[in-house]
Amino acid sequence: QVQLVESGGGLVQPGGSLRLSCAASGSIFSIYAMGWYRQAPGKQRELVATMASGRRTNYADSVKERFTISRDNAKNTVYLQMNSLKPEDTAVYYCNLQTGASVDYWGQGTQVTVSS
Asked: DSSP label at 82?
């Protein structure tokens, strides 16, 4: 069993910053990738940023040059630094972990609201 716990969400003004954290625990034998997805009301869940083995990253076009994903492998933790936030970034952000056996795990989500 693998558990993912997100933290760091909240309310921020446009142009502000937040850092999300996701800590993984449980029977983790091999991690292929960790990352972040988000879902706004009435919309599909979409990829925000991922980091796979070898520190290979992938970002949504809408967040490039504003968001940065990082990992602390010793702590099985992934972070998302979000700068220059826009109202359209408002969503529930979900942490994702994909094992080497291609099994996906998801966190419970953390709300990010960007509003003045």
From this structure: E
Note whether 48 and 39 are within 8 A (CB).
no
Gyration radius of the chain's alpha carbons: 14
> Is residue 14 within 8 Å of residue 86, measured between CB atoms?
yes
State how far the alpha carbon of 73 is from the alpha carbons of 23, 54, 111, 114, in Å: 10, 11, 25, 30
**Phi, psi (rounded to 5 degrees) for 74:** -65, -30
* Block residue for tokens 């309310």: 11
46-66 pLDDT tens trace = 999 999 988 899 999 999 999
